[in-house]
Predict the structure.
Amino acid sequence: MIGDKLRELRAIHRMSQTELAKSIHVSQQVITKWENGKSEPSSAYLNDIANLFNVSTDYLLGRTSDQTPNKELSKNQKLVAYSIDPDISDEERKAIIEMVQAAKKFRRRI
């Protein structure tokens, strides 16, 4: 699933595997493995890819067909992330909230 999305986004943005690899600091072979389903990107690389193509990580994971990235964090979400570690960046706060939201979705499926 992720591989198909990567291939699609690269085509839309007219980007080669090599260009994508350089943009997110991995080898072209890693991109090939992701696109062929032989491995999957870590959450950090998923975030990098989502940021690069301006799509949501949920879109990359096939959880939604909506490419739009998540909206700005709410005040409560920022407070939760801040309570975990007050010295983290906004990007790290977003990643924490995404993990919490993913855990909530997973819990509902059980």
Observations:
- Residues 37 and 82 are 36 Å apart (CA to CA).
- Residues 75-109 form one domain.
- Helices lie at 2-12, 17-24, 28-35, 43-53, 57-60, 75-84, 90-109.
